[in-house]
Amino acid sequence: MQIEFAGAAREVTGSCHILRINGKTVLLDCGMFQGRRAETRTKNAELPLPVSEIDAIVLSHAHIDHSGRLPLLTAHGYRGPIFCTSATRDLCAVMLADSAHIQEQDARFLTRRGKEAVAPLYGMRDATVATERMVGLSYDQAFDVVPGVRCTFTDAGHILGSASVVLDCTENGVTKRIVFSGDVGRSGLPIIRDPQPPHGADVVLLESTYGNRDHPSVAGTRDQLAAVIRETAARGGRVLIPAFAVGRTQEIVYDLHILAREGKIPEIPIYVDSPLAIDTTSVFAMHPEVFDQSEDLVQRVKDLFHFTAVHYTRDATESKALNAQHGPMVIVAASGMMEAGRILHHLAHHAADPRTTILVVGFQAEHTLGRRIVDRAPVIRVLGEEIPLRAQVSVIAGYSAHGDRHELQAWLDAVRGDGAVPPVYLVHGEREAQDEFAEQLRGAGYPNVSTPERHDRVTL
Ligand SMILES: [Zn+2]
Ligand SMILES: [Zn+2]
Question: What was the pLDDT predicted at 363?
């Protein structure tokens, strides 16, 4: 049997690995490469292998860097199964449709600019077909992917429905267990359960996004959130929370719900201002089976995402009307890095108001508006206008959905247990993070750690 690293090799995005066994071919993830447009367009358009050669696909979770090119495969005729958890399937229905919409918009923009027709990477129909091919399964329930490959999902604790993938592969009478971590989450995140590392592995494919970073703990984030809201409300301002529509928004709403029940925040209106976030919230509500039953709110309350103070604004005119509304309020809007979405018009109207707080709860990549705001640029450019940044800027770092270097190693240690030390292939990480993490693991008793390049193949 052989593994080829076809994406998220020495980089974070484009997760895709190819398993060849018993004359069959299985794809693990088929994600979108993200980053600078010109580079990623070519990489995304290129198929990892001819569609006719793919027998089955196993998907770890719904994030676009793992699922985003599945519609490209269906556009090229793939009609085989895509195995994933039920929650992943339902999240993908929303997210792949959104991605198709972005692809179509992008193609229109490029066509206008270049005066030559540019075809979208894929369209809405391809996204629908991809979702239709998805087979939703439960955690801890073994199923056959192709003859000789038995698969089990365990909870990766990263986003709703996220899985680590255990593949028991039998070829010529020999069985080897390949464990693909997917994206590894953290203990204590709101709503979802803690990561459940599989037991035992002959080979591990391990993500390494934060392989050289330490995160502040999850404990305490909710109190920080409360403090920011109290202070801002006291001076009559609004709290603008730019947040990814999938996952982060629901965590924030959930924490606000707890704080409201405990009387730790004043009774001010809370607006969730993103159609994608609203759709995603409905998917969350459909999957209580994957919630963390040890959390108090999950046990006590039937509807986690609806309470007196919270309002969902789907309509664009409703969203714009918030600009003229007076008094303190909380607005949660996409996008997370403030590069697009409704957060922009909120910033355009209120970033110059010293009563406002811009509360950053997610990672801000270089060259984004979000990063400039975190770096406290005196003037920011929003929707073509120069705006003096007079708002308070607060950062809460504890919401990260990826384990840091200690949490990743703890996950790997748990997988190994008392068994033999498996070879480890680091995937889903930038070079620097991977090199530092590989050193850390070698020092911790894993002599066989590799950082494969894209298109590298290993025979097991
Ligand atoms: Zn992810
Ligand atoms: Zn990822």
Answer: 84
